[in-house]
Structures are given as structure tokens and as C-alpha cells.
UniProtKB/TrEMBL annotation:
PANTHER family: MLTA-INTERACTING PROTEIN-RELATED. It comes from Microvirga vignae. It comes from the Bacteria. It is found in: Cell outer membrane. The keyword Membrane applies. This is Membrane protein. Pfam families: MipA.
């Protein structure tokens, strides 16, 4: 998805007669077209192949809908496929700031029978704040800080840089990623209590600390078919590091290498015009 904002207003100047007459004394008026009103809503169908749970060594298909909206008369700005769903309070040409939210899947015994004895982790939603800055037109820096609800109660942060380049209807992007989580987050997904260790029998008790949880990169390619339709394909890679990588869950049942693939189909339409 691409995000850039511009508007154009054409002004028509009416000139009076150059000859000296009664009509020449009449005032002239500038006629301005009315600004576009309403919103552009973009519905998205997302299909992803991703780790079954954080730290897993196998992949699962996940499909879900999402949406975004912008004011009519503006162009959709670039958005990386791993961005959270966001709404801007500040949205100028170089700086964006606002609220963001993400969904984090859970961890269940059905995902991997080797998880027997380990606590089930429910899905979580992660509301928070984001800031985005474009130092030059082809480079974007973005940071998100979020707090988990339901599945975990920790704080997480994602930092990223994206090189973005458009080639007609195509837009390609790529850049590094860095993820962090506090102790509450890492203990939920990568920790093992003594009771869990005794029930499972294959892992030892482990109490991780917060810090950097992964480093990696994301690349995407988008194509605009028409004013209504566009598609985006992406690939992502994360390498678990620190206490997350040292977790016995990762070492015994999972993998430090976390790969994701995805495809999004978008349809845009106007409302409230």
C-alpha cells in the first residue's frame, strides 16, 4: 500500500472588459470549485503464511479482513505490510503521528502437541501509538509502541526503516526491522514455569527478561490495477535474539528463524460525498 497526500485546486479568473464602459466598473469574482468531501474506504482481504505461534518452527495460513480510510481528494500513503492498523492525528508530508493497533495470535496445544503441559496463550490485541517520519521522499522511518490486552499484558515496540520506490503502477519497498518486548511479554511467550516444566517433561523452567526479541527485514511489491483495485505481496524474516532465542520452547520445539509470506487484495470506494 502506498501513502502520499496531495491536493490541487484550479482557480478560474474572470476578467472584465478592457474598454472604458459602465460594465468595466463592475467587480470581478474568482470562482473556486468546492473541495472534495467524504471519505475513501479501502477494504482489504489478507492471506498470510506465518509461524503458528511466536517461536514456532512450522507455518500456518491465516486469512482476515481489514480496512483503512482517508479523506476524499487525497492519495493513499505508503504503508508497509507489517504496519499496524493506524489512524493519524498529525498527517503532513513528512511526519505522521497517531494511534495504532495490532492483532497477535495465541498459542494452543492444537498448534503443536509437543506443547503439552505449557499454558495456553489466548489471542491478544495491542493498541498503542505510532510515529512515522520521511527524511527524504524515498525513505521512511516508523516506530510503534503498543500494550497487550487479553493474551498478554506486556509492552512491545517495533522499529523499521523502508526504502520506497515507485515505477509507474508498481511500488517496491524493503528495509530492516527491530522488535522489543518487556519482561511480561517475553515471559508469556518464551518463559516456562516450574509447573509447566514438570508437566511437559522436555523443557526446563525458564524466566526470560525483556529487551530486543528479534531483528529482521521486510520487502513488498504493490501494483495498482485501477482507482479501485490494488494488490500487495510481501516476504518477511525475523531472527529471534536474546532471551527469546534462548527459550527452551524455541530450542526444543521451535526455531530462531521466523519467516512470513503474504498477499493483500484491496478495494477502495467513496462514502459520504
Amino acid at each position: 500500500m502506498r501513502l502520499s497526500k496531495s491536493s490541487a485546486i484550479a482557480t478560474l479568473f474572470l476578467a472584465g472588459s478592457a474598454s472604458v464602459s459602465v460594465q468595466a466598473a463592475e467587480p470581478t469574482f474568482t470562482l473556486l470549485p468546492s473541495a472534495p468531501s467524504g471519505w475513501i474506504v479501502t477494504l482489504k482481504a489478507n492471506l498470510q503464511l506465518q509461524p503458528s505461534y511466536p517461536g514456532a518452527d512450522d507455518l500456518s495460513f491465516v486469512g482476515y479482513p481489514s480496512l483503512s480510510f482517508r479523506r476524499a481528494g487525497t492519495v493513499e500513503r505508503f504503508s508497509a505490510p507489517d504496519d499496524g492498523l493506524s489512524f493519524s492525528f498529525i498527517d503532513d508530508s513528512a511526519l505522521r503521528f497517531g494511534v495504532v493497533g495490532r492483532f497477535q495470535g495465541g498459542r494452543y496445544l492444537e498448534d503443536d502437541r509437543r506443547l503439552f503441559g505449557l499454558n495456553k496463550i489466548n489471542w491478544a490485541v495491542e493498541p498503542g501509538l505510532f510515529v512515522e517520519y520521511w527524511p527524504v521522499e524515498f525513505l521512511r522511518a516508523r516506530a510503534e509502541v503498543r500494550h497487550g490486552i487479553n493474551g498478554h499484558d506486556g509492552f512491545v515496540a517495533d522499529l523499521g526503516l523502508d526504502l520506497v520506490q515507485a515505477f509507474g503502477a508498481f511500488t517496491v519497498s524493503a528495509g530492516p526491522r527491530l522488535s522489543l518486548g518487556d519482561g511480561e511479554f517475553t515471559r508469556t511467550y518464551f518463559g516456562v514455569t516450574p509447573v509447566e516444566a514438570a508437566l511437559n517433561g522436555q523443557v526446563e523452567a525458564y524466566r526470560p527478561s525483556g529487551g530486543i526479541t528479534s531483528v529482521g527485514a521486510t520487502a513488498s511489491a504493490s501494483y495498482i490495477w485501477s482507482e479501485q483495485w490494488s494488490t500487495t505481496a510481501f516476504v518477511s524474516y525475523k531472527r529471534l535474539v536474546g532471551d527469546a532465542a534462548d527459550s527452551p520452547i524455541v530450542q526444543e520445539f521451535g526455531s530462531e528463524n521466523q519467516v512470513g509470506l503474504g498477499l493483500t487484495v484491496s478495494y477502495s470506494f467513496g462514502v459520504g460525498r
